[in-house]
Every structure is written in structure tokens, then in C-alpha cells.
Give the backbone structure.
Amino acid sequence: MSDETLSGGLEAAGTQRQDGFDLSQWSARRLERVEHALSDWVVADAPAGLGETMRYAVLDGGKRLRPLLVLAACEAVHGNEAAALRAACAVELIHAYSLVHDDMPCMDNDVLRRGKPTVHVKFGQAQALLAGDALQALAFELLAPDGTAVPAQMQATLCRLLARSAGHAGMAGGQAIDLASVGRSLDEAQLREMHRRKTGSLLQASVMMGAACGAASATALSRLAAYGAAVGLAFQVVDDMLDVTADSATLGKTAGKDAAQEKPTYVSVLGLDGSAAFARTLLEQALQALAASGLKDTRALHALATMVVNRDN
Amino acid sequence: MSDETLSGGLEAAGTQRQDGFDLSQWSARRLERVEHALSDWVVADAPAGLGETMRYAVLDGGKRLRPLLVLAACEAVHGNEAAALRAACAVELIHAYSLVHDDMPCMDNDVLRRGKPTVHVKFGQAQALLAGDALQALAFELLAPDGTAVPAQMQATLCRLLARSAGHAGMAGGQAIDLASVGRSLDEAQLREMHRRKTGSLLQASVMMGAACGAASATALSRLAAYGAAVGLAFQVVDDMLDVTADSATLGKTAGKDAAQEKPTYVSVLGLDGSAAFARTLLEQALQALAASGLKDTRALHALATMVVNRDN
């Protein structure tokens, strides 16, 4: 995410500098660390072009919302920064691999992503498949480093949270529902269940992984989980709205594809105005959960939730 | 692997009941536990048919060589049995997902596996892609359970070993080399490097994960790594031989496909006799490493190495 985009989202929200907090500045510093770490960890020297394909899938693009949520949650609990940076990159690798596989011809068959040709268009389907697989493995590798910088207990917890959110009960399960729902109409409950898994699960896990880098009370964890669930769903509601209202250049991906692919969306179920109202309700829920968490420095989490709802791409 | 197959391999070796050890009996008990655990853990209730696809990819078939190596290594170090059962299943899930993706049209485009239609033939490419992705995530989920049955330190080590062996430096990297080598001739060193990653890495990791379920000396770990490397390479040399000498019914997969796909193999580089001699040399190396490990009960590891070289499917 560029600084411009972050600022734009926040200006729309009108809450960007509450308590003197500047999300744009906060994010810029952290994104620099994340981009640097991703570039270090997604190695170019993997054999037979695999490294190049993996780097193309991960670097130079992406909003990095998930890494920012990890880092913001870690800061809210005063957690282990080395662990949080690994967790931030691991979540982003899972997100990146899911996009690579999701874009393939047997899935959404999309050719444009982050303003560039999709991975299979650029490198072929076989390399795209393998690069996605290798990115998933690398995510877990990042979470389980040698040495003592990240305590074993934390490594195990981070692996558990990421595996559960990425797998059949989370993201992959949501993709399966998505696949089966093309051309069907879902009611709001079914749509919410699909998105809770497909998108919400990994966004919520980002928050929980950040929190797992420190020591949070059971109350704080429970409230952060509620925050993560609300932000995760709000993200998808806004995504569905943007697919209708934005153009491909702004989105960096093909606009209008939900309707073209006859996918049920929040816009198709609630309409544009209803979706906007629902997104605002979810934002309120997220912010109330934060307020009830007992955590002191939740300004970045607050600002990120606001940005998710007010973003324009 | 059926009992018949194990016995057949061992009878050919003529070493099956050294020291009164009966691999067939040893394996039968452990395979029962593995099959039961896999059936419990690969859940049918994943949404939209995903669970059914995952179970089809994993259950009712497969030699389960990797799980047996995990359990044998764990027993050699008197390790944590609950951890080893999880590790055994996790390794098998990674193996199973790699087969699902490898069989897809954009990779090897194979229609027969374990005597049944491949996953994408049965369930479609999109489901095959997702089921593979979900199986990889589930592997790591199994290694990082809640509770205290598996200590956190052990969970972290198991995740580390599995992630490294499955990813760009291991299996996925080997697949990329494989993909790039079609129609080319490789020399023995290049072929060995490809197979060290593609097949050997996960087989060696199986041994090391079993060992990580207990407390082994540095010497024992180093010798077990050598054992795992030799067995891993021997497995592939024999695989290349069987692709030429066995028929599809015996193999349970399409025979002769290496030549049909112009893939470089040990048979193409060393010939059949040369490959057989190389496999015997590797078996000797494996058994010497075991003998030098200082571990007392290595009979199952001994018998498994012998079986790998003498198997007929």
C-alpha cells in the first residue's frame, strides 16, 4: 500500500490523526521493514527459476494489510518484534500464494493482479503452482527459525494459528465454498460464512499472531479476536463494493469480475447502500472491541480498521 | 503398502528376519495406527466437498514409507509416540499433496495413481488444487496441537524440519528442476541434486522428524541424516528402475512415463545394471550409517532401507 493510498483512506474517514497518531507515517516505517525482510527471505536462488517466480508473486505490490495488522497487534501487547516481523511476512506469503493459485485458469482464470500479469501468465501454470506451494512452505519455515530469538512456545503457537487459518477450516475451505457458489444465490448468513473463512480467517489470524508475540490477557485476546473478525468481514464487504464502483486501474486487478463470474457478493445481497451501512456497523464493532480490550496502545489497530472501511482500492 | 508387498520386498532381500525382526508384523501394527489417525485427522466435514477430496487423496492407498520411517526413527531414539504419530501423518500429507499437484494437467498430466483415477480426474482441477493446498496446511496444523502432549520445543523443531524439506530448498525446488529438465540430458551429479531435493528431502526429513521426537546425540543425528540421504536417493534410483521394468498394474500408476515424457532418470544415465549396483551401494551406505549411529534398536530402520531397495512397486 502506498502512503498516498493510506492517507486517502484516512482522509475519507476523517479520523486519521486522532490522538496525534499518523497512520501513514506509522505504516511507512513498518512497510519498509516488511519489504526488506520479504526480499531477504524470499530467496532468488531457489532452483530452476522457482525463486524468481516466488519473488514476482510476493514483492513490489500488495497492500500488506495483513503484515500491518500483525505488527499493530504486536505493538498493542508490547510483544517480541523479531517474532512479529516473521509472523507478518509469513501471513503475507500465505496471502500471496493464495492469490497465485486463485488466479490460475482452473480457478478464477485472471490475468491481471496488482497491475501486472498474473504469475501463471508470466511464468506458466506449472511454475505458478509450484511457486504457490513453495510460498506456503516458506511461511511456516519463517515461523520456526533456529536459535532463541523466537521462543519455541511462540513458534509453536504461531504455526498453529497460521495453519488453522490457512487450511480447510479457514482460507482453503472458504475458497472451496466460493468455487461451489458460482452461479448460485447465497443468503447473507451463507455469504458471511464463506467470507469468514476465505478472507476473514487470515485477517483475524494476523491480529491473533501479532498478539501471540506478546503476553495478552484472555480478555484482550477475546476482544482482539472480535476486532479481527469484524475487520476481516468489513474488508470483504468493501472489496465487494469496490469491485462494482472502482475501475481496474485503481484496483490493480480486474474490476467487475464478481458480476461477470456470477459470484454472490454483499452488493448482490444487500445492495451498495446496504453494504456501506454494514461496513460502518462492522467498523463500530471493531472499535468497540478494541476499546474493551484493556490494551493501552491500540491506535494503529484503530486506524487500520478505519482505513479498511474507507479505502478506495 | 500391503503386508504382501512388504513381505515380497523383504523376501527378495533375504534379510527380512535378521535378529528375529519381522518387518511385516512391525509395519502392520504401525500402519493400522497411521491409517486410523489419518482417517481421524483428514476430516470429511471440510466445506463444499473439500473434505471428501482431501480424504480421497490421502486414504486407502500409498506405501506409507515416510510414516514408517518416522515411527522407526522415533523408536530408535525411544521418543514421544504421540508426537511421532503426528509427524508420521504430517509427512504423509505433504507427500499426498505433492502427488495431487504433480498429477495435474499443467504438471505431469497423469490420470492413474494408486490404481485409481487421479484427484483432478475425479474431482476437477480446482478442487485438486485446493485440496493439495489444504493438505499442506493440515500437515503443519497436526504438528502444532494445543495441549502438552507434544512439548512446544518439539512442535517447533518438527515444523522447521518439515517446512524446510517441503519448500524451495527441498521438494518444491526439486519439482522445479524436474520441470526444467524435461527433454534435457542431466549428468549423474545434476540428477542426484534433483532427486536429493524432489524425493530425498522429504524421506530424509521423515527420519529426522522421528529422531526429533526423542533426544538423540549429535553423532546419532548426523548418522541418521546420512542414513536418510542414502535411503532417499536409493528410493528414487529404484523408482526409476521400476518405471522401466514393472507394469502399471503392479505399480498402481502409469509405467514407462519417464521415457514417454523424456525425463532424465538413473536408468537413462547409468543403465539398469548400473542403477541396480548403485542402489546396492546406497543401501550399504545407509546400513553403515545406522551401525555407526550408536543407537541400539535400529532393526526397523535397517529393514525399511532393505525393503526400499528390494521392493517391486
Q: What stands out?
A: Chain A touches chain B through 57 residues (CB under 8 Å). Confidence is low (pLDDT under 50) at residues 1-16 of chain A. Strands of chain A lie at 112-113, 116-117.
